[in-house]
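Predict fold of OSTA protein; 300 aa.
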Amino acid sequence: SLSAGLDLPGRFLFATLTLMTLIAILVFIEEAVYIYRKIPSSKRSIIIWINAAAPVISTTSCIGMWVPRSTMFTDFTAGIFFAIVIHKFLMMMIKECGGQKVLLKRFENGRFTISTGPCCCCCLCLPRVPITRQTLFWLKLGTFQFAVFRPVLIFLSIVLWTNGNYVLNNLSPKGPALWISCFIGALTLLALWAVGIMFRKVRILLKCKNIIPKFALYQFIVILNHLQTTIINIFATQKIIPCAPPLSSRARGSYIAQQLLIMEMFLITVISRVVYRRKYHDLEPPECVAEELGDKKQTP
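Predicted 3D structure, encoded as tokens:
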């Protein structure tokens, strides 16, 4: 067994990381109970989904650490879950503004800045798009397509992998791994772009709701779960991470990625509890805001 092949420091590390995962799950359960009791039903499920991202990734990484052969399935499970969370985060920003109708009323003459990351941050010449029901639909579609197509592509990858056609190391144009990875990458960038456009517009309005720390935590999960893991896997594939018998370079890279994710997701779970636990006041209706601005103009 795996535990029998570990020395004393290795067993201590595995035990510590497993304990961190269990604590993260307990913290999330306690937070979910609090949200269920205190948060209005319209926002409840969305906030629970977003808070569940870090504990779920920590749990899948812990399972992959103890059962190395399950790594592909655990990575795919975390990937599917986070694809849904990206869509939920966009919906949370809309809900925090009071819903779609209220958001359209607040930004009646406003415009979306589409020259933002990760797709078009350098394209400053792009026009600003009016905020309408149609543009909101396209933004929601940008994240929803990721929540739908990523699970489909991951299911296709598993089917091809069980048949022996999908090999992660084989990135030749003739193999399916390269094309599926590129397609998932393009869908990911499109979804993150939609969230970035919305955040850029509502960040000042939702400052009282601590949207900036919430967005920062969401961005950390994106970077750590996708970029960090991809870099480590590339290093392992290129033998930059040396093998340590009985572990190959790839297996060792997988272990490093999983162990780092467990520690990082534990910290994010604890910080999320602090950020989402605060009591926030609801935003003033658009009519009240307009009246206050009118009064301030008349006062001088």
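The chain is about 70% helix and 0% strand.
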